[in-house]
Amino acid sequence: MVDYDKHIRRGHPIVFTLIIVFGIIEIAISGWLVGMYNRHHNYLSTSVRDRTRYILFTSAWTVFLSLFYLALFWHSSSAGSVLTSVLSHGTFLFMTWVFWLAAAASITAALSGGLDCSLHYVYCGQLNAMEAFAWIEWVTVMFALVVVVFRGIAASRRGDGLRGQLVA
């Protein structure tokens, strides 16, 4: 049997750092767009404006809570804590996955799958980048969620249940 604990100890900080970095990129893009929309009122539609605001919220949620979970994992992964349990990680990642799915799908629908910058000049590159990074963030969170589901199955098999730790 393969011991996955060392992979989790190495992989958790890497995956959560990627989630945080992509979230910061989304905060920068969506925050700048929200600022421009509030100042100049030159958004493509109210749909794009509102979905950009939602992406800003989702990005802030993701960065703040991912930093929290990363710090907790480093601090108490060996001692164990309710907040570093499979259930806690799974709940956070599932909610974040749903938020990102809604954000990425809604901005994709609002932009009709992306903008042709030869036709749209106002913030075209930023909107396309925001859409792309929303899907990248969704995929990254989905990967983390799948790993946590598998670790939850392993924790249940060893008798710890979902309150068991990611690392045995």
From TrEMBL:
Residue ranges of domain MARVEL in the record: 9-146
Principal place of residence: membrane
GO cellular component terms, A-Z: membrane
Bilayer disposition of the protein: Multi-pass membrane protein
Residue ranges of the TM segments: 12-34, 54-74, 86-112, 132-154
The keyword Transmembrane is annotated on this UniProt entry: yes
Record InterPro entries: Marvel
Subcellular location: Membrane
Keywords: Membrane, Transmembrane, Transmembrane helix
Entry protein name: MARVEL domain-containing protein
Species name: Laetiporus sulphureus 93-53
